[in-house]
Amino acid sequence: MKRVTGSLIGVLLLMTGLNAFVLGKYGEFKFEKLHENIYVMHGPVTEPNKENEGFMNNPAVIEGKNGLIIVDPGGNYNIGEKVLSEIENVSKKPILAIFNTHKHGDHWFANKAIAEKYPKAVIYADEHMIAEAKAGEAEKWYNILDRMTGNLKGTKEFAYPTRALKMGDKIEVDSEIFVVRHPKTAHTDTDLLIEHVNSNTLFLGDNVMRGRFGAFDSTSSVFGNRKLLEEIMAEPEMKMYVPGHGQSGRRKETVEPYLAYLKVITEEIAKAYEDEVEPYEVADKVKARLEAYKAWDGIEHTLGRHLDKVYAEIEAMDE
Fold first, then answer.
1. Which Gene3D superfamilies match (predicted)?
2. pTM of the model
3. pLDDT of res. 92
């Protein structure tokens, strides 16, 4: 009897391991409870690669009385299925709505997995995000993520957001109240910051990252991003801040470090521009000021691009 029981336990343990969301050296991923009804799964703070299968963002769950609201479910269909499985470990309630914070596919391609199971779920995003995604941004990001991860094959159909939002919109879903903010241009030109009023939590999207730097594309503004974060730092503090990548926390832990980084690169490049010095010529000096960020993912290959971006913005403002 003991032998049978031991075998059964072994089988159960094996089944548990098979169902767990595990990504190689990055370990196991589950939703962490940040508030009585707020849960966040903090993804790896690395760029998309084969081992993380393209999972790198912070999917979030807000549990209402009758259903769930999701923020940024993840970067592809296959990851979406795993995230969905972990969501069901939090609650078996149906998913009523999804918020997408911006157009980059590593945050919203997993919409498809959720929409297949919950076709009535409303998917919210900035009005410009929906237009840009359909005009080619989704296709571009699919090709980027598939090349880097090899995990998107066969999942090229996109579940686009279905409800457009704009600055100041207030949405109520299952008695959970959300207010959205749309900066004209920050991390992209399609960003939404989502305030969950009930818990006093702010979902920042990629306007804040912690532990990694990410990228600024042609629609981004480093100066706009800095201005946005300065405004957030000047406001009454909220209880919790959830960045697009990296650990959630209080404002000093999340917003302040990324803002400090943006201040360093904008100040140094503004001075370089004034002195008629190229960005690469001050890169070592800038890096010396960023000693506290040396462990952040991507600093070696990202810093130079960020400096060039800042320089280009200053040139454009000076025209």
1. Ribonuclease Z/Hydroxyacylglutathione hydrolase-like
2. 0.93
3. 97
Residue 226 lies in a domain: yes
- CA atoms of 260 and 262, how far apart (whole Å): 5
In a domain, 266, yes or no: yes
Structure tokens at 172: 């109520």
The parent domain of residue 95 ranges over: 17-318
Q: How many domains does the chain have?
A: 1
CA 313 → CA 128, 216, 278, 280, distances in Å? 22, 12, 14, 16
For residue 240, which of 301, 176, 197 has the smallest C-alpha distance?
A: 197
Give the pLDDT confidence of 251-289 residue by residue, as tens digits.
Answer: 999 999 999 999 999 999 999 999 999 999 999 999 999
**Is 6 part of a structural domain of the chain?**
no
Sheet with 176-181: list strands edge to edge: 170-173, 176-181, 193-196, 201-209, 240-245
**pLDDT tens digits for 158-206?**
999 999 999 999 999 999 999 999 999 999 999 999 999 999 999 999 9
Q: For the chain, give the percent of residues with pLDDT over 70.
A: 94
Task: List the chain residues with pLDDT less than 50.
Answer: 1-4, 8-17
Q: Is residue 4 part of a domain?
A: no
SS3 per residue for the chain:
CHHHHHHHHHHHHHHHHHHCCECHHHCECCCEEEECCEEECCCCCCCCCCCCCCCCCCCEEEECCCCEEEECCCCCHHHHHHHHHHHHHHCCCCEEEEECCCCCHHHHCCHHHHHHHCCCCEEEEEHHHHHHHHHHHHHHHHHHHHHHHCCCCCCCCCCCCCEEECCCCEEEECCEEEEEECCCCCCCCCCCEEEECCCCEEEEEEEEECCECCCCCCCCCHHHHHHHHHHHHHCCCCCEEEEEECCCECHHHHHHHHHHHHHHHHHHHHHHHHCCCCHHHHHHHHHHHCHHHCCCECHHHHHHHHHHHHHHHHHHHHC
